[in-house]
Amino acid sequence: MSTLRKSFSVLSAAIAIALVTSRAGVLSAQDRGGELPRPSSSAVAEAQAEGLDLRRLPVTRGLHIVSLDDSPFVGAMALQMRGEIAEQAKTGTYMVEKAKIPDLRAAMNTVKPARTMSGLLNKRFHSLADIRPHLQYAPISVEGTVLDSQPMVEATTAGGVTDGRWSGVTRSWDIAGLGFVQLDESEYRETGGSITLVKEWLNSDVNGTPATLKTMRSADGATLVSISWVTESTDYRLNLQPVHADAVEANQRALRDLATKLGRRT
Amino acid sequence: MSIGKYVLALAAATACMDASAGISWLSRANCVAGVVNESVTYDRPALASHYMYTESDHVGLGSFGGHIVSAPWNVTWRSYAGDLGDVERNTVRGLHIFGDDMAHLTTRYTSATDCNLAEW
Questions:
Q1: What is the ipTM of this complex?
Q2: What's the total number of domains in chain B?
Q3: Structural domain harbouring A51
Q4: B16 assigned to some structural domain
């Protein structure tokens, strides 16, 4: 009897220890009672050294707008952001290293179809009708905008995948007189997750929704104009590699104007 | 901070890329004879680099807890957190964090009990 009791105690202790030691692992990846899982302690420590305080990540799903001081960006990274925000506000652009400015056209030419699994799986599409069956939702309409007047160069799936269908899509067009335009969108209301926006970067709006409108330039003239906004369901971003890089205000105005016209017709 | 860390921090602070356009994320469980479990954050086909972090929690069927593998913060087009060798069937839960030129930070979650073979 005593041996049985001892065995039972050992078993109970083992279960208790297992429950306690498993807690961190379970918490790191499960959504418990609406509260989002947290990064592991090692990730927090590592990120801290690199300018991100992951303890400041939102604990609930959805959109969160926070001041830079309360954001996950800290130290040198926060300092750099503050400088870029100020430069954008003062001059309408901010300077970055060339490596920070993507060549949107060149990105089209990576991973040639049929030479990789990507090609075999036909991840690149050339019309909304072709890509629509691979998406979980209907992307925002471009009907009635300048994008509608030109053939779509490419569409690729993005976001998360459930049962073979994706939560996001990136589409691109080459618009004469304006430049190469990329429209990226990712649904987040149904598919979960959180988005943290830095309040100080919200310097514009798209039909009343706060937006970030900015122009990055490098010393050699590479330019990327962008406007990004997050609605109650979807994270949107328009990128423009302009034909006339020096027409800063005109490019920003054109991109914002385009953003405001998206989704008006279906 | 070591020099390596400093270099990485500097790279992160100065080389965080463009837009989050095209970023995807997924988890896979019990792949390739049932022993590969992984979570990945990536930008394909553009292969554009972004600031990314991925964590993958692998919990065996009937287990109280599992183990976590992670891909360090990095400027990359593919952030991979995975391992192989778990003989039991696993549920894989992924945590994916990525920055959009640091104007905003996105956190997404994935969960898988199969191989998600619709994607590479």
A1: 0.77
A2: 1
A3: 2-59
A4: yes
